Amino acid sequence: MPRWQEIKPLVKIRPPGFGPEARLASAASIWDLREIARRRTPCAPFDYTDGAADQEVAMRRSREAYGRVEWQDVTVLRDVSAVDTSTSLLGAPSSMPLALAPTGFTRMLQHEGEPAIGRAAQRAGVTYALSTLGTTTPEDLASAAPDLNRWFQLYLFKDRDFSQELLERAKDSGYSAVILTVDTAVAGARLRDIRNGLTIPPSLTLKTLFDMARHPAWWYNLLTTEPLEFATFRNFDGTVAELVTSVFDPALNWADIDWMRQHWQGPLVVKGIQSVEDARKAVDHGADAVIVSNHGGRQLDRAPTTFELLPDVVDAVGEKIEVYVDGGIMDGGDVVAAVAQGATAALIGRAYLYALMAGGEHGVDRALEMFSAGIERTMQLLGVASLKELDRGHLKMR
Fold first, then answer.
1. Residue 208: which residues within 8 A CB-CB, separation 6 or more?
2. Would you give the distance in Å from CA 214 to the centre of its chain?
3. Residues 22-74: pLDDT tens digits?
4. Measured CA distances, 157 to 26, 113, 248, 250, 282 (Å)
5. Active site residues
6. What is the largest CA-CA distance in the chain?
7. For labeling, which of 13, 148, 221, 369 is most exposed (least CB within 10 Å)?
8. C-alpha span between 82 and 99 (Å, rounded)
9. Domains of the chain by range and CATH?
């Protein structure tokens, strides 16, 4: 029989911990954070993040595209003890080729919201874009993370005076660039939201009351913190689709990009580019960067798969402006693949929202640590010491 003296060194039982650090201790990937988020968050807000439009084909294809990458030109016996993952986005330094994309209704997902994300991004040395549909004002985010490289994302409203006011507030609050999202003329058919009866703010129905009993911490935080509302306008009560219909402008066209250039003198990023021709038009109308994006599959289902479209856009306009990509990016290897395809940087959305729901600000820290480690590790195993060495020769699509 084994003796206690032989067993004792093997015993690693630790007392249970409490709080987000203990909860996230075993999380090894964004998918682990997603599972923790699913357990801790009511169905409607979780599905708002997790879902997409119609049959969710575009979202699945975005993720599958990165899964089809096979690395090529892998070089061994190179000194990769020091790997440089740093880059610059529109002239601002970034610790890695990654930025946090704008997302709406953030405090509905987890009560700490945008300030927690901004502080985590500031610590990680990456850019964070605040959404027009955010639940924190541009001024409050600037106060919470004063050293953060902040971008402001704008939807052009039917009320152009109000849009101009938002641009002025962004300028006065030190936002370095504006993202104009152009793929939301009408709302996509997000069927999970319809089935869940999601409204802003959440409605107390028999279904949500039952859900409240299963997620008491989430509801307690929602009901005991500041009321959930949009930071850039007030007094809306309804569904996401109703909001888009009521205030967004379906008449948005290229002349409005010219209007933006007149009212915003800083860098302008056009988000929602899904064709080479539109990328060229963005350059012609004064854009400083484009984001190849299908809105995470949340607008037009079966939209172009951004990772596959990216090289064509880079070939067309990459020498004139910076080209970013989003959609389906869930780990550091995905980011490296995007850079190898020619992207200046990749933007993530769902990945950091899962982390926020799983563990608040600490969860976002954990997600950014995962991405940083994954980017560095992938580069080391490829035998690449800097981002400049990456090119399309490093991958093929299976």
1. 42, 44, 202
2. 28
3. 889 889 999 999 999 999 999 999 999 999 999 999 999 999 999 999 999 99
4. 44, 24, 5, 9, 20
5. 295
6. 83
7. 13
8. 22
9. 20-397 (3.20.20.70)
